[in-house]
Structure formats: structure tokens, C-alpha cells
Amino acid sequence: MIVSSGGKKPNVHTSAYVAPTAVVSGDVTIGSGCAILHGAIIVSEGAPVTIGSDCAIMEYAVLRASGGTAMQFALDIADRCLVGPHAYIAGATLGEGCFVSGTARILNGAILEEDCSVAAGSTVRPGARVAARTAVGSDAKALETELFEQVFNEKADGDARGRIAETYAKFLRKAHARDGDTGDKKTPKAPVRRSGEEPPATQTTEVDKVVDVMMLELEEMEHRRQEAIRRQRGS
To answer: Which of 56, 170, 209, 227 stands the most exposed, by the fewest C-beta atoms within 10 Å?
Structure first.
């Protein structure tokens, strides 16, 4: 569900998947190739939320930014990051390739440099800075190695965190591409948004499927859009 808030409208790339039960509200930008799963909440309240390309935001994760006249806590998540189920990230900055396990907490003003991970149940305190390629939490490195190799079938070396996020986001987009299509002709379908199109200020829109940038449908859509522009210019 995509909701305008505070006069701001979310901007979700057409290749991203947003589950119907996820909530994206306010000044939120979601990049290409992302997967936002059921129950996830991404909210901007006075400061922007930016999520880069090829990120996976899993079930019931809460991502939020906040700000007023005195202080701003924007949330900035770079490319190829994975945020696990029930994780909580508020007003922080995550570099490329970060891996946040389920139930982890990253609080206002914290900065994770590239290729960091936060173990389940761990907390990154407000204003803390985590150096690149650091694993936060008790036994984090050992647990991470087991998770990567036994669950994601990836060697825990190089940019494994980023590779896993990108691969998993792609898998999730394809796995959920036809969600909501029950075959019941009486069931109304939500409209598909075009690239850059946003809901009106008082409207809520459900995104019912993925539009992959490589698919023929998107190419045809772009062709029709360009034809319409040419006709308008010629009139």
C-alpha cells in the first residue's frame, strides 16, 4: 500500500516489488530491483527515506525517518542491502552491501559503512559509527558464515552480503510476480503505475505485481509513452 503523507508522495521504481500488505508512506524513494515484503513499514515523518537498488526488505521490518525544525534524521540505505524480518531502522545511514538480521535495531544518527552486518537482536546505538566490513553482535561472524553458506548457499567471502541481497531481491521479485492473481474474474485488480507516476495526495494505491524492466510489457509501455509525447508535441 502506497500512501501520500505530509504533502509528499512515495516514488517507487517500476521494477521494484511492494507487497500489498506493506506500507510505504510519505517522502520515500525505492530504487530499482528492490523487494518489499508483506507487513514491512517504510515511513517518512519530516525527513526523507531513500532505499537504493537491489535491496530486500523482509516481513515486518520497520524503516522510518523523522525530523522537525531542530533536528533531521533521514534514513538512507544504499544499494544491495538486506533488512531481515522484524528489524527496526530509524534515521540511520547504511552503506552498500549491509546485512541487517531479523530483530536487529539501528537507531537515529547511526552510520554503517559499506559491507557491514548486524546480528539478530543486536543494537547499534544512536550516533554510533560502524567501520566497513564489521560484524556487530555476539558471535556475529560465526553465525553469519553459517547463515550465508547453509541458507543462501554463498561463501562468506568478498562482497557476500551485497551478493546475497541482490540475488535474494531478484528471487523475491520473481516469486511474488503474480501475487494476487486468483483467476477470479470478479476480483478487481489495482491499477499498474507507470514509471514516475505517483498516487494523488488523498489516494491509496495497492501494487499488485512486479513490472520487471527487462520484460516486454515495460518496453511496450515505454514505446506507447514516447508515442504519446511525440503526438502532443506535434499538435
So the answer is: 227
